[in-house]
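re: that complex we talked abt at group meeting.

here r the seqs, copy pasted straight from the sheet so there may be weird spacing, ignore it
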Amino acid sequence: MRKIVGWFAPVLPEARVAILRSVLYVFVLLDIHVIVRDPIPLSRHPELYQPLLLARVLHLPPPSVPLSVTLYVILLIGCVIGTAGRLPRLAGWIVAAAFTWWTAIGMSYGKVDHDHLALVVALWVLPTVGVVNGRWRSRQRSAQAGWALKCIQIAVISTYFLSALTKIRSGGWSVTSWPESSILLWAIIRRPHGLGQFLLPYPELLHVMQWMSFTAELTSVVVLWLRGRALLAAAMFWMGFHVFTAAILYIHFAPTVICWLAFAPLERLGPWFARVKARRRQRTGRGAARHPVPVLRDQPIDGAG
Amino acid sequence: MEQRAISRVSLTWRIVVAVLGIGLLLNGSLRMSDDVWPFGPLSQYAFSPPRDATIVITRVEGLLTDGRRIDLPLRVGTAGISRAEIEARIPQITADPSLLRSVADGWTERHPDEPPLVQVWLVQDETRLVDGRKGPTKLVELSTSVVAR
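got the structure back, here u go
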């Protein structure tokens, strides 16, 4: 039992949570302008609205321009407060709710994207850690921080692992149907912009790539138990995977990619930054007239120094 | 480094929530549809097109008063709506072509310097795969609507 508890809620540095919060709230600001940027224009088309289960269960009103603009303003203010590390619970939960609603609106017009799972989870769990004393430079560790980070890590890995399960399901519960299908060819023809054009004449190569990505997705769960260099290697592999899919298909998974930071020892940034600053101060503070090398005739007049 | 204390209750609800969340995600992927977002299946590019699949790109074309027939790119920045959203509504649009006005309005609003639209078409570029390789492409008109002014 203790082992299970320790896995779900490991004791981890709170500084990592504080830094991750700031990064993610900045990312949300970017997201609502660059990625899920259509809720305001979409809310002008009530005839195309098809509410998701979430909206029906919570009886959310249908999107309108005043509603989507209000959510937008709430997100702007909430994210600025959140980035500064103020009111972590209040601002955090307001951003979580507003962003979930905002994104749900974006997904209620027929197309549902799957790159926001980890980010939505992160926004809901990060506020539970509450106030982090010392913020980015906190020297405290806690299971509260560890649980929030573990949830984000699980959500990141689920994005890959569950997509492999979905591929098995959609292929009639067959492991080979997706990797042997013409899916990449299909995707490249549908998105004729990226470097994928050059791969069109080589369907066999596309099959090899499908097998590789499917195997990686299916085995991705292992990452949750990796540490140190092995974890770094896995993270580099998945970053490479995303660069590759972005290059050939113009599909980025930026909201998932940013959440990989939950695996990173961000807590080292605070001390590292402090060391860099101290070294610079030391360098500029030494020597007469604040010069790094003695300057001729800049010695004290009495010759004593 | 100091360690913050955590109560038994605090730890219990956290583990319950995590296990429930994993359960919901698995349930979504194995049994549900996109409707249960954010717990739905991760179904983007998760299907398996056969070696003789027909690949369809849906577009909207518009006739301008100056006689040019142009592609109205289906992106939020150019038409106020994206291709996927139009694709999801093809049956409704063929039943009621006037729904194309959302694209026409969105495009006109964002292109005030262009001449007005007279008529819009919902079209598809159909590319056939032949034995797993790219084959010929043809244009199919699905629906059309005269733009009321």
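couple things i noticed - Chain B touches chain A through 55 residues (CB under 8 Å). Chain B has two domains: 1-47, 54-146.
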